[in-house]
UniProtKB/TrEMBL annotation:
BP-aspect Gene Ontology terms: carbohydrate metabolic process; pentose-phosphate shunt
Reactions listed under catalytic activity: 6-phospho-D-glucono-1,5-lactone + H2O = 6-phospho-D-gluconate + H(+)
Name of this chain's protein: 6-phosphogluconolactonase
Functional summary from the UniProt entry: Hydrolysis of 6-phosphogluconolactone to 6-phosphogluconate.
E.C. no: 3.1.1.31
Keywords from the UniProt entry: Hydrolase
A Pfam family per the record: Glucosamine_iso
Ion transport is among the record's keywords: no
Gene3D superfamilies (alphabetical): 3.40.50.1360
Occurrences of domain Glucosamine/galactosamine-6-phosphate isomerase (ranges): 9-223
GO MF annotations, alphabetized: 6-phosphogluconolactonase activity
Alphabetized InterPro entries for the sequence: 6-phosphogluconolactonase_DevB, 6PGL, Glc/Gal-6P_isomerase, NagB/RpiA_transferase-like
Pathway note: Carbohydrate degradation; pentose phosphate pathway; D-ribulose 5-phosphate from D-glucose 6-phosphate (oxidative stage): step 2/3
Organism field: Paracoccus tegillarcae
Length: 225
């Protein structure tokens, strides 16, 4: 395990400093490469970080953005992670970024896997990946007890898989552990005492019980109360 745990005085400071860090890693990559990729989480936590990031100066027209996972609902559904991105990231200075939407409109996420694996191929290795985590220690849609968790954690997993779990309200599509973990820069954003305690517990567990454990080889954690 190689974990750098950064604690911030409050969530506002976390959002500003983390957005600046992500932008500077993307910018640094763009100094020597034509293109960069940014993978971000959905859920309730990342809004302020995404908001700050959208206002940051960067050659956004050379950046491709994707989510680490998507809930299989229409893009205007209140649980859509894409909806969060459109509201908080893909606007202002970041409006010129390319976006690979994981929701294809197919009836089931399983029907979209082949298409998405092809579409996503050019973004790997991800330049900057920001992960989230639930209190149950899931990250992206790698949930404890999910139907295909072992395959999604395996080193030979394809880039994306369809996944279903009791802890998830709807079927999901998720980037798999090797493609997230192999990001050039890997960060985790968590807030509140419950998630801090869950992260500490996960360090002693197996990835099958605590999927976030599969990301701890070279991870920077950003936490505020
Ligand atoms: O369902 C999801 O949960 C995690 C954590 O979300 P949060 O609401 O606790 O911040 C998120 O990272 C993931 O993208 C999302 O689909």
């Amino acid at each position: 395990m190689n974990i750098d745990f950064v604690e911030y005085p409050d969530r506002e400071m976390l959002a500003l400093v983390l957005a600046d860090k992500l932008a500077s890693q993307l910018g640094q990559h763009l100094r020597t490469s034509d293109a960069a990729s940014l993978c971000v989480p959905g859920g309730t936590t990342p809004g302020p970080v995404l908001e700050s990031l959208s206002a940051t100066d960067l050659d956004w027209d050379r950046v491709t953005v994707c989510l680490g996972d998507e809930r299989w609902v229409d893009g205007d559904h209140k649980r859509s992670n894409s909806r969060l991105l459109r509201r908080h990231l893909l606007k202002d200075k970041a409006k010129d970024a390319a976006y690979i939407d994981l929701y294809t409109g197919d009836a089931e996420p399983d029907d979209a896997v082949t298409t998405l694996n092809t579409r996503l191929q050019p973004i790997f290795p991800i330049t900057v990946a920001l992960l989230g985590m639930g209190n149950d220690m899931h990250t992206a849609s790698l949930f404890p007890g999910a139907d295909h968790l072992a395959a999604a954690l395996a080193p030979d997993a394809p880039p994306v898989m369809a996944i279903r779990a009791d802890g998830a309200e709807e079927p999901r599509i998720t980037l798999t552990a090797p493609y997230l973990r192999n990001a050039i820069n890997l960060h985790l954003l968590i807030t509140g005492p419950e998630k801090r305690e869950a992260f500490e517990r996960a360090q002693k567990l197996d990835p099958q019980e605590a999927p976030i454990r599969a990301m701890m080889d070279n991870l920077t954690v950003h936490w505020a109360e």
